[in-house]
Write the structure tokens for this entry.
Amino acid sequence: MASVQTKDYIVQLIKEEILSGVMKPGEELAQEALAERLGVSRMPIREALQNLVQEGFAVRLPNRHIQSVVLSAQQIHDVFHVIAAMAAENTILVAKKEQMLRRKNVEQTSQTEFEEDGQSKLFLEQEIEKTPSEQLFQILSGMENALRPEKKAEWEMVYQERLISLFENPYLSQLQGKTMDGYVAYAIEKMGDKQQKLEQLRRITEGIAENNEQKIRMGLREYYLSYADAFVERWEKKAEETEKTEK
């Protein structure tokens, strides 16, 4: 087991305990105790804790001790609210690119009128590019046809990754991508009515196709804040179960 206890594995393990509600707010993350528990040296533990502090899952105190950061219900809502706002602004940019691409495709279609039938068809197959909404609707079709919830969750994550790639701005993609690692990714994997999520993502995609800013903003707000509600509900339930066990 020690051979797979890398820094990244330890980071993910502690994140899982924080996100699942297993770890209590302010619980000390002592290097010695973690090293003994996981059967590894203190070096990967130290590196993992540094990463967790940088990502906001832990805090280093003045006495150099490190504690877990478990957010309150309000803080969870704040996190998802900010993520929704950022995603909306970036997605609106994608919608504008959609309109530009649609015009480009129309122009290319008109340019083939003078071509012979066979050549015209070939030209269209090579030059007409799928719009962002067409790409996203195709992913949603895969999500809809998936039978198991975990497979639907995988398609949902593919949708998010594709949407981020459609920003076509490395800096913005990196910023938005970081918001996915942690609370959002965990919520997609573990929470939510996937049929409801499919419908929410479909409305967002329709907003992109229509270049409808209000529809995009409202759709993303509904999508992310419903996950915030699911997070809070799960944590409260976990806290109740822990309290009963301790009694």
Remarks:
- The longest helix spans residues 73-110.
- The CA atoms of residues 164 and 173 lie 5 Å apart.
- Confidence is low (pLDDT under 50) at residues 120-126.
